[in-house]
Amino acid sequence: xxxxxxxxxxxxxxxxxxxxxxxxxxxxxxxxxxxxxxxxxxxxxxxxxxxxxxxxxxxxxxxxxxxxxxxxxxxxxxxxxxxxxxxxxxxxxxxxxxxxxxxxxxxxxxxxxxxxxxxxxxxxxxxxxxxxxxxxxxxxxxxxxxxxxxxxxxxxxxxxxxxxxxxxxxxxxxxxxxxxxxxxxxxxxxxxxxxxxxxxxxxxxxxxxxxxxxxxxxxxxxxxxxxxxxxxxxxxxxxxxxxxxxxxxxxxxxxxxxxxxxxxxxxxxxxxxxxxxxxxxxxxxxxxxxxxxxxxxxxxxxxxxxxxxxxxxxxxxxxxxxxxxxxxxxxxxxxxxxxxxxxxxxxxxxxxxxxxxxxxxxxxxxxxxxxxxxxxxxxxxxxxxxxxxxxxxxxxxxxxxxxxxxxxxxxxxxxxxxxxxxxxxxxxxxxxxxxxxxxxxxxxxxxxxxxxxxxxxxxxxxxxxxxxxxxxxxxxxxxxxxxxxxxxxxxxxxxxxxxxxxxxxxxxxxxxxxxxxxxxxxxxxxxxxxxxxxxxxxxxxxxxxxxxxxxxxxxxxxxxxxxxxxxxxxxxxxxxxxxxxxxxxxxxxxxxxxxxxxxxxx
Amino acid sequence: xxxxxxxxxxxxxxxxxxxxxxxxxxxxxxxxxxxxxxxxxxxxxxxxxxxxxxxxxxxxxxxxxxxxxxxxxxxxxxxxxxxxxxxxxxxxxxxxxxxxxxxxxxxxxxxxxxxxxxxxxxxxxxxxxxxxxxxxxxxxxxxxxxxxxxxxxxx
Lengths: 602, 155
Description:
The complex is a heterodimer. Chain A is of the alpha+beta class. Chain A has 16 helices and 17 strands. Chain A is rod-shaped, with a radius of gyration of 71 Å. The radius of gyration of chain B is 14 Å and the shape is globular.
């Protein structure tokens, strides 16, 4: 059986069909044989029983009349019947009476009143009572050889065997050919599976033959392949994504110009990036807790790690690197929560040594600058007082001198005194202007809403005399509120308006102050119809001490516009000039419209 | 130290605290030109001014050195500057009622605001030209000695 099980499916089917068929043939033929034998026997019995009956009729008379020879004669007529071996006749008393060919009797006494037959020792025994008008006359015993029968049976069986073999041969042939219907698709499937398993090529598909169970198997197989391919693609994709993300992570960590590490909950290092390896030989840290190069103490570090397991922390740390250089780091630590696994500590350290150094430098410079500024302020204060006081004394005593000389003073002396006074006065103004310029750049500016309309009104009031004298006209309206330092802004507009009047042409001086809001800017223009400025000088006029005219013609130190520029710069605004010689000058100031309405209410 | 008329104790007394002799001279001349006779006392710096006001040493003699009705105070002075003198005057129970006027070269905003914060009664910037200076002194006289009522001296 085991041998059968290990056969190829093809052989298996062939063998099974063959065996089943042959068994069927054998069974069929056996039934046929048994049936035939039985029939033959029946025929033999029937034939000979009839013969016995007929003979019993013919031997009534010889028996009654005790005619032995007659009886033998009658019995010998049975010669025509083949295979009659013995025929014995016994009288009513059971005594032997006659036999076939006078053969000796096999029984001494034989009485049988009913007809019967049986086979014994390859012989058929037929017993027939001889009856006449209901009277028992004797018993007839037939012994018939079954040789013939056996012969026939032999022949028959032989025929059947031969036929059986021929049929079996054809059965095997047919089985061999029919098994293909089942085995071929299975074999094909098997071949495909083998091919797939050998080549790993899941794109192979099997061609369905029939819509039977194997057909379904094919469909199922193809479907399965399809799913495998799909899953394969998905797996590939996922793997590729994973690989890419891993690569990204490792590349990122490799190239990160900062320290990055992961610690176990017990503060031992688990991962360190290349920066740490290169700068701190951190490959030796893995699995260890405290690093000697840390300048912080162990307890503090462990406490920080414990805290980092719960929340993000940020602190600064100083460490010695592998070149024994002191480096300052800004450290961020954070918990890395994981599903069903203990939380880890993530750490990032950015080298801020240079930045800190720069910050220290900046701090130093700021301090230095503040100191310088303070010194300058002190100097300014001293200058404003101590430099000007002698000048004032000079002018005062010049005046006193000319007063003391009274009418005796010669015009030459008076002229000389006037020169001294002029020079001293000019120097006083110069010092004052310089101080103003210096202060405009240094003092703190307030940042409050300033109503320029009102501011200009006060300037015009202050300049009333000059305006009347020159018959000037100052026009302004609706200037938006801007944010700035009113005192400083007043200086700007006073300067610009004064300049506009000072540098008037022969026409009646008109100064227009216009304003407009545009793109979150407030643009204010101070337009005059004065003498204007040549193009080549326009760039220079904001520089201190830039005078374009001789002192005889126009008074002034040449600092006014420099002060204006400084104040405007400090307001983060801009000032520019447009001018055409002989036609007039326009100063344009552009403020950022950063006035917050809430602050206005405040 | 020039005392214009220290014998007459009924005159209005003015204490000029000024370290610059030129300016002392200028102020004296300006007052001389004025219409009102005053008893002008001069202190050369803040320390001397405080000695005068508290009656230390020679200033103990109030007949010769009476408490002034008005103090003219310069800011920039050696030893003790005007603002310090002002602080001492205005925190002194007896002295704080005496009007103090800053008469100084400084027109620095800080000096002005500081002075008013310390309780100065007026702040005057010294004019450059003599005529203007005379004018200022004239106006001082007019305002403080004619229009304005100074507190009575009841000590």
